[in-house]
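Internal QA ticket QA-208
Title: Verify multi-chain structure generation after dependency bump
Assignee: T.L.

Test input:
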Amino acid sequence: MNQSPVPPPSTDRVQVAIVGVGLIGGSLAAALKARHIAAKVIGVGRNISRLESAQSLGLIDVATTDIAYAAQNADLIVFCTPVDLIAQGVEAAVAAGSPQLLLTDVGSVKGTIAREVGALLPAGKNFIGSHPLAGSERNGFENSDADLFEGKTCIITPCPWNSEEHTVRLTKFWESVGSSVLRMTPDEHDRKLAQTSHLPHVLAAALATILEEENHAIAATGFRDSTRIAAGDPDLWVAIILGNAQSIVESIDGFSDQLAEFRAAIEKGDAATLKKLLDVAKTNRDALS
Amino acid sequence: MNQSPVPPPSTDRVQVAIVGVGLIGGSLAAALKARHIAAKVIGVGRNISRLESAQSLGLIDVATTDIAYAAQNADLIVFCTPVDLIAQGVEAAVAAGSPQLLLTDVGSVKGTIAREVGALLPAGKNFIGSHPLAGSERNGFENSDADLFEGKTCIITPCPWNSEEHTVRLTKFWESVGSSVLRMTPDEHDRKLAQTSHLPHVLAAALATILEEENHAIAATGFRDSTRIAAGDPDLWVAIILGNAQSIVESIDGFSDQLAEFRAAIEKGDAATLKKLLDVAKTNRDALS
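Actual output:
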């Protein structure tokens, strides 16, 4: 783990509320602590004893089940809850918070939330979606990593009703935990992530599903890497996948067309075509390294 | 890297020839050296200057392009060449070697080689296929790892014409470099590996292929893990895939049926079915960890 930079404490540090202190929320709390970014971190959740455990680990300063309390005391609220619970959380927080309160989330789909929050206007105007491309198949704040966001990309998805001032504040916030920020529209985000994240998840799940039990012992590194993300939380992924269903179905169809090209070359024993297909795949994959 | 056990040198150590000193052949040479298993390691290849580099790194004791020399001086020959070159290598080696010479390979398909070697009977009777489930997307002996086989499974595929004595010798050889040995028929191997290795390779390649260039920057860990094996050498993989085409096409079809179930649930917005599918996938994947 890299040593995080430790700037001197300043008097203008913000108070940050994190709703949903799991792996991502806990890691964000840890990053804010390690970098002395927040004057206070307020952890919000439904299970007070879990929150008190996070507090005793030093991840959060205050543990509460009261979103209104958090909204009244924070400059920024970050929703780290499942994607289907974010809009209702925003609605409750805005009702209690000051007009300056900035709200964001870390959800893996953005279009649905943007439409739900857009329907709350003007109350929803201080919410801007975020998606830090940093995750893990592990769960729980016990696996928190203060460097989870370091060197990663964070996509933010401002809408026409958001102010530039809020967009800049949010950008600086993610930069302060080590991320590079990319801006795009919520729908652009969802089309892109369908290809880079949601489709791979569905493929990994389908591949893990068909593995016969008698073949477990010979499923080596390649199989394990290809299916690692299938170990992710099914409830979280139902919400993500159904929150971006149309783009994912289109991505599955594009993938199936490509797979059919491989299948045809293999069935015909067409070495030249198969070589070309594998060359393109390798070139694309190598470009990521 | 674990410390390899170092037994005292014994006078009955074998001479081993390795044909094709790349990543796997070089790692095998390194393992034989580190564990003092071989009295002498003979490296065989087409490019003498590459072999001399491997010799100067201490991986092999002798560098030669002459398979007959290797066959005359070795107790065991291990072919680490591409799978479509193994049968012809076996034929050349058997013509020059003693009747006690044991021959094996490390290829990822076994049925085609078994049939090709079976056609050389009685000359081919001392060849037994091996497939150590240990690989890497990297290439070249420069990436050799003396512990590559440690804790891994090695499948061996004796045929009715092989002697039990040879099968036991081969088993002990792989155990001596740290592997656990599984015995099965060549065709059984190929059906199983179609599912656990060759299908995942084709899926990774198809997924890597459809990644649009503008999305490279947001292809995060999940995408990278899912497509890692697509960086493998296309020439090697053409030979592997076309050497097991029928089983792979069947595996692609089984996978496509499973993917269609996911697609239908996603298109319908059927959360209950999608949850069930993801639960099975997670259970299967967790069983591998």
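Spot checks passed. Residues 190-286 of chain B form a domain with the 6-phosphogluconate dehydrogenase C-terminal fold fold (CATH 1.10.3660.10).
Status: verified.
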